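Lesson 9: reading folded outputs for more than one chain in a single document. The general rule is that every protein is listed as its sequence immediately followed by its structure tokens, and records are never interleaved. Here is the first one.
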Amino acid sequence: MIKITKAKVADAQAIRQLETVVWKEEVTNKYDAPIFVRFGWCYVAKSGQKIVAAITSFLANTNEVYVCDWVVAEAYRRKDIGQRLYQTLIKAAGSRDIISLINPKNTASLLAHEKLGFKVVRRVKMAYGLRDGLEAGNRILVRRKHT
């Protein structure tokens, strides 16, 4: 059985490790991971004691919730675990809009976001200002307006 809970600081390195396995490169450094968990809006999906999925986000100064990462271990995909994580975040966000930047090549993520009520806002060139690696290139900004 998969259980969704608010992440604890003790979960930070396991979330980081899951991101590294799934994305095949370091996404969050070891110092930032605990800060995201402690001060952000982060939820994990656990099978027993093992973290198999996570969503990390924070409240921006615009009063929007910005999703940093949404990751599900390959063996646990297409089982609604990622959707349950997002629904937990949506409930926690209350009246706040939720925004995310998505790699336009990640069609599965785009479709999942659309299914969750997100709309494409605009394309963003070189969103993170990087030329190499996972975060390099253009992104699509999506927003889920509070309903």
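And here is the second record, again sequence then tokens.
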Amino acid sequence: MSPTATAGMNRRAFLHLTAATAVMAAVGPNRAAAAPDAQPVHLPPPQLDSGRPLMQVVRARRSARAFGPKPLPPQVLANLLWAGDGVNRPDSGGRTAPTASNSQDMDIYVAMADGLFLYDAKGHALQPILGEDIRALAGRQAFVKEAPVNLIYVSDLAKMKAAPEDREVYAAAHTGFISQNVYLYCASEGLATVVRASIDRPALAQKMGLRSSQKIILAQSVGYPKP
């Protein structure tokens, strides 16, 4: 078999793995996934024709703090992240959540059992950051480490050039837009979710390796309802 055919088969097999399993296969357990051999995990395209009518979803929107252990399938995770802050206008790079002066200062970090990843909205992929479970650091409540997915909303304040005195106000608003998108998607798909502010931000930021201009605003737990 030619090297080209072998490479094609390997890539197809890789894309069919779950996000977490694929990254762990590439970098190994408990090893920083930012290693040179770590590869981005390409998510399935979002299912734009799925979901319930908007008014039904708004009526169903609520917070939940009990999560079952079942992980989110790759398609559900892909839809969730795209709904939160994905690219909905490819010609301009516009996102599903607005930002002041289109600063696009927000990053969504995804903490799961097998690692920490950064959602690359333009590539609709997960960039590996850490190859270890840091979910317990994503919040002070006991249920946080049980949720299969914890979204960590980080604003890079340096990207907001206009009105520097209001950057943190804008960052809070931007986070609200994203988290509400996630709430509505979860309501549509029968997922449990809650947005949270009780976080040891210095400890989490250090573990994530954030720069001084990057600020953790809120986190949001997502999963299937606990039976």
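What the second record shows: The CA atoms of residues 6 and 12 lie 10 Å apart.
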